[in-house]
Amino acid sequence: MKKVFIYVLAVLIVLSNNLPCYAYSDDNSAQKSYWDYLLDEDEISFLTMRDGQKALSDYFQKYNMDMLIGTKEYYDYIVDQTLTHDDKNLLSNDNYRVINAYMLQYKLYSDNCFENNTQEKFYDNESFLDTTINEIRHRNYILLNSMYKENANKSMASYSASNAVAYAVQWGGNEADPSNGILANHKHNPAYPQYSGDCTNFVSQCLYAGGIPFVGNPSSLGIGVHTSTTNWYCSKITEWHGNTPVQGFSLTTSWNRVQDFYTYMHSVANSIIHYSSRNTFISMCAPGDVAQLVDSDTGTVHHSIIITSKSGYNVTYCSHSHYRTNEPLTTVTDTLFLFDFT
Predict the structure, then answer these.
(1) Taking CA 337 as the corner, what is the angle to CA 336 and CA 342, rounded to the nearest 5 degrees?
(2) For position 274, what pLDDT does the model report?
(3) Interior CA angle at 89 toward 87 and 90, to 5°?
(4) What stretch(es) of the chain map to CATH 3.90.1720.10?
(5) Are 34 and 25 in contact (CB under 8 A)?
(6) d(CA 336, CA 136)
(7) pTM for this one?
């Protein structure tokens, strides 16, 4: 009997060593994914983006805030609020959950419009307005649970976390306006495109500076943003229109869209783990790793940052859109995915 037990134990150890090193959470059970709760219905499941939009409009009206949908001020307010939750009056609003869900969708849709240089008024589109919280949760459930089963590890040997961090500090955050010395101008490397929603574009630049290689041929599809979660690149190329050379950027959506980056990096990172505990995240992260913010109410992944320093439980990061240089991680309130590249 003892020999049988030892044999079974040995088999289990061998099998465990061959499991892919991905996980969803530090506090999930083996029987149930952390994200299974997204499939449970609650009091906001069948509320829509129309409800969230109206609730936010009513809030602006109540507090005499001049925010017109479709404007830069409206977009900037939404970006600030979804990342910092600084407006405590809105945070205490009875409809905050549906408002926050709407703001996250508004931001993601707006970012796609900005990168494609379109003026589409998606916020007036019936299909957008009629989207329910339940539909968003189901869509995100599929995203969060769709991972590559293999762990590539091909790029990691050449990855320099120090080079990635150096790039992040050089090009993250804001720089002083020469006229008055106030930190107002967003840092931008002219070798890359810049977008209103620039967070993932910036993090991809950092990883490339650290040695993660392009996958795919930037010249194959020409100038533009190309939908892909299997290739990853961004490069300035030249096209010939007759006898006229035209320069522009060719890049994949996995390079600059937060959710496509999430999908692509499953095949590259050593592991991708969701942490609902901030202290556990801090204990596991290292400079050069990437984090993505996820709204625990809807499962919406909506922002990318790169870790730049760690001393005990003091961790800093750099980012675009919020433009931050060595910002304390304590300012981040959402739960986090940790992309381990180190």
Answers:
(1) 120
(2) 85
(3) 70
(4) 156-340
(5) yes
(6) 19
(7) 0.85
Q: In whole angstroms, how large is the CA radius of gyration of the chain?
A: 22
Within the chain, which residues score under 50 in pLDDT? 1-31, 148-155
Read off φ and ψ for residue 145, nearest 5 degrees: -105, 0
Measured CA to CA, the distance from residue 278 to residue 287 in angstroms comes to 16
Residue 162: CB atoms within 10 A of its CB come to 10
The kind and range of the H/E element at 328 are strand 324-328
The per-residue pLDDT for 144 is 79
Cis check for the bond before 322: say yes or no (omega within 30 of 0). yes
What is the per-residue pLDDT across 5-47, written as a single tens digit (0 to 9) for each? 444 334 333 333 333 344 444 444 434 566 788 888 999 999 9
- 205-246 pLDDT, tens digit each: 999 999 999 999 999 999 999 999 999 999 999 999 899 999
Buried b (16+ CB within 10 A) or exposed e, 290-308: bbbbbbebbbbbbbbbbbb
274 phi/psi in degrees, rounded to 5: -90, 135
Q: What DSSP line would sit under 55-117, residue for residue?
A: HHHHHHHHTT----TTSHHHHHHHHHHHHH---HHHHT-TTHHHHHHHHHHHHHHHHHHHHTT
305 vs 291: CA distance, rounded Å = 5
Domain 156-340 listed as CATH 1.20.1300.10: no
In eight-state DSSP terms, residue 123 is G
